[in-house]
Specification:
The protein is mainly alpha-helical. It contains 33 helices and 6 strands. The longest helix is centred in the first third of the chain and has 47 residues.
Length: about 725
């Protein structure tokens, strides 16, 4: 073939190839365009077919457009949130954390801001229902009980359990390291870990406890044993002794593990005991004691193992079994193991149907004091008052002016005080009383407000007694915010400037009509733990109210925020008040958003100094306690603020207290799927006019308390390993 012919053939082949390639490209282009159009149509159809998205577009978005787009739409992205950018199903329904924050802000009255138009209650309810049903996928008839976290006994629970199980008061405060806390409580399973060091301490504790409770020698056995573990004489014969040891260990392990124990485990414990007491010079009691050590070192004792009931045919979450329910109940209300009545009802399968009666019985028991002490100690930070550092002289120096006569009387009082109670005469005692009365008349407070060990103890007792009174007398929970009474002894009454209270015993005292006291926020514990060492802290106090009373804590402050005192450097006043200093601090845009929420609340408490004592001035300037909340309510003093919190923010307080107590009870932080459970309890409280019993029964009967997603076998596996060792 000639070159020209070849060239012509190649040209024809090239043209054909090019035509084929371009044809293929055109085909695939048309195919891809058609596919994209089909996918788009499917996406549109899918959007229309998802009820949650359709409801959002039809009913929720119009409300947001009217009331929220000024800050969160039409180009505005306050808080990095723009509702008009939520276009796809995933964007609308796939971010529960966003909608959880929105729900909190709407309910708290913080969104929209006070000066903006607000949705009607019906519109707010419509938004809340859509969030819960479409985004959270809540089933009101079957709320999500949340995940199960294996919970180790904390120091308080361990001490109480050993006391009730063995009768030994083991000082866990001295022997064990402090427990970690999460979400404000030391009952949280996620942080109650078991380090090698703590495991070693548990092993040592088990040996010490059993050594104290169970004698080693026969003479000690005859002299020291009354009937806790060894109700009868040890029988003769190896078979009879084995049966004797087995029976004792079966009952002991059942109580310690808070569940019936399988026969294989009992056989191994009995074999361990026999291996010891068959040795020369050893007693049966000492052998049983060694098996008890194994029980106390077992994770089935140290951790709260839980099991579930056999699941019914419905699709609901499984109930925890009645033994697990008994343990949840006893550690919630007593901080200790279940007693025999709870275990008996669990064995019969009758505990769940008798919960109201058992709750009433348990609250009447003296062990409920541990619930009061441990919950208030952490919710209200009352336990911190024992160690917080306050410089009384620096605190009082902010309030005193130069007064030579008062200084002379103060020095004279100090001189007499330093002589000691036994050294001063009757006349000098009267002189001290006269000086103290002069200070009461002049300043409305004692001469030397102090934070002695006894004063701190009295302050904490006041907080516990008030909470206990509300719970045990089934009073309104709102009395924790505003009431006409408190509990005082002579020492604390003197600190508060209240007369006619004598003696060391705490008792209920009706307050004068014009008294600013009444409610937990005016108690010494709260006032002291929310102060700085040398002065009050309106920031800490405002944050405390937002977190512990209203449930709307601000986010953590940005990094590198300058100290509050730096804001005072530009002021012309020689000694600016805290109100003036905070006003200068809020001038910083980065600080304003959070401080606008905290400062009005904290400044309203400025009449109470860092010692919990009432004062009228700071640096010779009258205290100005007036303010306006971010939600729009104005007040002239703290007494008016308490009234606003109790009357207009009652639901916020019910919800916050429910969340705090539920967290304490179930041992985990709450999540968005807990909203329905909390709402049901709050509704129950509101229907009862705020009664404390509605809160407690609501928690105990809730899905979060009675059910679980799935049990954990970890404690059982660890127990097997420990027992083998």
């Amino acid at each position: 073939m000639s070159f020209s012919v070849k060239s012509q053939a190649a040209a024809r082949l090239s043209a054909a190839t090019a035509q084929s390639v371009w044809g293929a490209r055109a085909f695939w282009s048309r195919f891809l365009l058609a596919l994209l159009a089909l996918l788009a149509s499917w996406g549109s159809a899918a959007a229309d077919s998802v009820p949650g998205s359709a409801d959002f577009r039809a009913h929720v978005r119009p409300i947001l457009e009217t009331y929220c787009f000024d800050c969160h739409g039409d180009g505005a992205r306050k808080g990095n949130v723009a509702f008009d950018e939520l276009k796809t199903d995933q964007a609308i329904l796939g971010n529960p954390e966003l909608w959880w924050k929105a729900l909190k802000n709407i309910r708290a009255g913080m969104m929209p801001p006070a000066k903006k138009a607000r949705p009607s209650p019906e519109q707010e309810q419509a938004i809340a229902q859509w969030i819960k049903s479409a985004v959270f996928r809540v089933d009101p008839a079957n709320p999500d009980p949340g995940r199960v976290t294996v919970r180790r006994l904390n120091r308080v629970e361990y001490r109480n359990t050993i006391r009730d199980l063995i009768g030994i008061d083991y000082d866990t405060q001295a022997e064990f390291p402090p427990d970690d806390t999460g979400f404000g409580f030391d009952t949280i399973g996620d942080v109650l870990t078991l380090s090698p060091m703590l495991l070693e301490k548990y092993l040592n504790a088990a040996e010490k406890i059993v050594a104290e409770a169970v004698p080693e020698k026969k003479e000690e056995a005859k002299a020291k044993i009354y009937a806790r573990f060894f109700p009868s004489e040890v029988p003769a014969g190896s078979k009879a002794r084995r049966a004797y040891a087995r029976a004792i260990l079966k009952d002991f392990a059942r109580k310690a593990f808070r569940h019936p124990v399988d026969e294989k485990t009992i056989d191994r414990l009995a074999a361990l005991a026999e291996d010891v007491y068959e040795r020369p010079g050893k007693t049966v009691e000492s052998g049983i004691g060694q098996a008890m050590v194994a029980v106390l070192a077992s994770p089935r004792f140290l951790f709260r193992e839980e099991e579930t009931e056999a699941k019914s045919s419905d699709t609901g979450y499984p109930l925890v079994d009645e033994y697990s329910l008994a343990a949840r109940l006893s550690y919630f209300l007593w901080s200790t193991m279940p007693d025999e009545e709870l275990m008996r009802l669990a064995a019969e399968g009758h505990l769940r149907q008798n919960l109201p009666a058992q709750m009433e019985r348990m609250l009447k028991d003296k062990r409920s004091k541990d619930f009061v002490r441990n919950f208030t100690g952490q919710w209200l930070r009352a336990r911190d008052v024992d160690n917080v550092q306050i410089d009384s002289r620096a605190v009082l120096a902010r309030e005193r002016g130069a007064d030579p006569e008062m200084e002379r009387l103060r020095r004279r009082y100090r001189d007499l005080e330093e002589k000691g109670e036994e050294q001063i005469s009757k006349e000098e005692k009267q002189e001290m009383a006269d000086i103290s009365a002069t200070f009461f008349k002049r300043f409305g407070r004692p001469l030397h407000p102090s934070l002695s060990t006894e004063m701190r103890k009295s302050m904490r007792e006041e907080t516990e007694e008030v909470f206990s009174y509300v719970v045990h007398e089934d009073r309104s929970l709102l009395e924790l915010i505003d009431s006409d009474y408190t509990f005082l002894n002579e020492r604390l009454a003197h600190q508060y400037g209240i007369t006619n209270v004598t003696g060391d015993d705490m008792r209920r005292v009706t307050l004068p009509a014009d008294s600013p006291r009444g409610g937990v926020l005016t108690e010494g514990t709260v006032l002291v733990v929310t102060s700085n060492p040398t002065r009050t802290s309106p920031v800490k106090r405002g944050l405390f109210i937002l977190d512990c009373i209203l449930g709307t804590p601000p986010p953590p402050p940005p990094a590198n925020i300058p100290p509050l005192e730096d804001a005072a450097k530009g002021l012309t006043n020689e000694t600016p008040t805290l109100r003036e200093t905070l006003a200068a601090h809020r001038a910083n845009v980065l600080c304003a958003s959070c401080h606008n929420r905290m400062d009005p609340l904290g400044l309203a408490m400025e009449n109470f100094n860092a010692l919990g004592v009432w004062r009228g001035s700071e640096f010779k300037q009258p205290i100005d306690a007036a303010g306006t909340l971010l939600t729009g309510e104005s007040f002239a003093d703290f007494k008016q603020l308490k009234h606003i919190l109790a009357q207009k923010h009652a639901e916020d307080f019910y919800r916050t207290l429910t969340e705090k107590m539920l967290t304490y009870a179930v041992g985990r932080g709450l999540d968005y799927y807990d909203v329905e459970t909390v709402d049901q309890i709050v509704s129950r409280i509101e229907k009862s006019n705020g009664r404390a019993s509605a809160l407690l029964s609501g928690i105990i009967e809730s899905a979060a308390f009675q059910k679980c997603r799935q049990p954990s076998s970890r404690p059982v596996k660890l127990a097997t390993l420990t027992l083998n060792k």
